[in-house]
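Appendix B. Extra example for self-study. Work through it before the problem class; the solution is given directly after the inputs so you can check yourself.
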Amino acid sequence: MNFLHHLLEKQRPLFEKGGKFERFYYVFEAAETFLFTPPSTTPARGAHIRDAIDLKRMMMTVVIAMLPCLLFGMWNAGHQHYLAIGQEADFMTKFLLGLQHTLPIILVAYASGGLVEVIFAIMRKHPINEGFLVTGMLIPLVMPITIPLWQVAVATIFAVLVAKEVFGGTGMNVLNVALTARAFLYFAYPTEISGSVWTYLGEGATTVDGYSGATALAIIAETSEALKSNFTPGAAVAALNNVSWAPGLFSFENLFWGAIPGSIGETSTLMCLIGAAILIATGVGSWKIILSVFAGAYLTGLLVNAVALNAYMDLPAHYHLVIGGLAFGAVFMATDPVSAAHTETGKWIYGFLIGFFTVVIRVFNPAYPEGIMLAILLMNVFAPLIDYYVVQANKNRRLSRATV
Amino acid sequence: MSKVIKLKKGFNINLAGKATTQLAEHTPETVAIKFDDFPGLYRPKILVKEGDAVKAGSPLFFDKAMEKVIYAAPVSGEVVAVRRGEKRKPIEIVILCDKQTEYVEHRRFTVSEIANLSPEDALNHMVASGVWPQVIQRPYAIVANPDVAPKNIFISTFDTSPLAPDFEFVFKGQEQFFQVGVDVLRKVGKCEVHIGLNAAAEVSKIFGSVKNVQFHKFIGPHPAGNVGVQIHHIAPINKGDVVWTLHPYGVIQIGKLFLEGRYDASKTIALVGSEVKQPQYYKTVLGANISKLVAHNVKSDHVRYISGNVLVGQKITADGHMGFYDHMVTVIPEGDKPRFFLTEGWLAPIAKRLSFHRALGLLSFLNSSKKEYVLDTSTNGEERAFVATGTFEQVVPMDILPMHLIKAILANDYDGMEALGIYEVAEEDFALCEFIDVSKQPIQKIIREGINMMRES
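Solution. Structure tokens for the complete assembly:
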């Protein structure tokens, strides 16, 4: 591989100060450091040896952790399609159909977001950061399979620009970039990201009798709205089990397994837990956040059970953990190290409140069937405040020591 | 004996090239005193010029901010160079050593005379003889101001950093000097002397039976041996406090000054590292030139010579001089080769490069904890923006928030730095953060900048 490095090094003067493509230096740097760990050595003073880790490897770990969700999501997209049109299909057919519709979304997300990254790196003269490896993969996973590609591009560009670059780029953003993309679409193009968009049906396809593309969240919300306070205990679960066009679609087991309508990557709680296992085992994701989101959601679920005034409040607490994007959000969105709380104590509070608000939004706000997105964005905003109090407590310990 | 303080946070870096317990003589041709070794110097006034003859203990320079503290020549000989940099900033003073060292002769004290000595006389003797720069103060980790009384004095008697010399071997037979040094320090500081002992080792023959001190036992991975970490758990530094810290070498040097009447700058150092053919101990002198030491004793010529340990030391050339406070020379391979991303780079599984992390492909955690690593000077990645991964917190065994302290420094937030504990820390306490950092940021440099900001404010 030496010849390749020599070839690259030959081009270096073109990109260095005074070279023809000086302004594109960081594009060159990105390409070179992608291919080769740089020959840079440690400075004359300070630590002379360094850990084998680098940011690329760390980000790659997160991408790997998302792969189970992505692969399952591809299969599930095909699975939902054939389920809706009432045809049998084998595993590969389903997977390839999903692949065919997922791949363009991924490519568009990487390309459009990557372009913004590169432009800003050139303008601001900073290195192109590897964080986008993760963001570019997260965005497709929270999109419905039927999303128009131009919307993916617009949302990605909006999110990278407004959620990240205006704050100073990687490491400076307040909000999670991928969720900002999703929230942007949610409020700008509500029809393309809610209702019956979760299943790809195809042009002029006929669906099975009684077909409805509604997600579990929507069914529960509708049931709750229809029955108001005249509900019988267990009405929400009964409504889930009574989906006539596909019996057992919303059984608890299937909700956990994830062969249900929803965003591409978020349906399977099982796959999210595999991702969580990878993140926790490698130490890349904070187990404190993941655990406390689930705990917060479950305990809040129990709390609303206790005062159940409608069918949604009556929904058993463990259902909250498997419906919607809670698991995906807890594992991949809430753990984003930049937008999460930075203090270890703060992470417990941050995660717990995400779980809490997710259930509160789901149960008390019929306008937004999915709570996790808004809960995480809300807590992103509050994370610095949580940190502020944790840091203040540390400062106070130091101060009180001085006065004793 | 006091109870054992267990530290969980930290990380041991087990490198190849440990010193065997053999001792040889290394008589250098030249020695040097380098001004960069004293980050607290305000404006040094050099007292010698090229061609001057000096004795061991003759003053070389003093700092105009602390005029009574002299920095002495470690050997007798001829000043062959007074090197200066830009704006005549002094860099180093080089002395060509005599064959036979001549000492500036001071008065010798008996133990009972020392007991009757007044603190003022003892202090004046120390600052005028060359031993004082061994007394470091916190806050700031600089040479102590002799006019400010300390609240406590701390001595760590073990070093947990990679390939560190074994103090039991290095200071063997120096018990009486250590005891006298401690007694003098107690007198001069008018305070308690706290000794940090290694609970993982046998009871120290040298330090375990010292009288008139408070013992504290520590156990845990590096940086448990750092005096800053020990202070934090014994009696943390608050705003307005000053404490003194000393390496056992400094204590023994003080003891020798009083008992033998000499500024004795001889020291036993370890020559270690994976690239050294015969890693072992050498008896030499402070600031020694290493050229004869490393000639024909390294495995290749593409190596880095480090005065000090791999985490906090400074790079020197093959004919460079050791740092003032260093007790070891580490030789490791240079890592300036590009590595293809699939075979050895960021996508390849790697077990032979040590990592604190366990991210994709970093397999060193599977190795036995006894495995000795050969690590080179590669940064293993590019400098990137800070990412708050929460790992710094796992290698700083103090109630300090490293990330927030670093951010406060970068933001020039003086109140924040003070409240987050800048007075308690030195660069070395954050060396592991620099090692494990994914973004390859110069953490120790940032900490020193923060300390300097606080000093100048």
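Self-check: Chain A has a mean pLDDT of 89. If your reasoning did not lead you there, revisit section 3.
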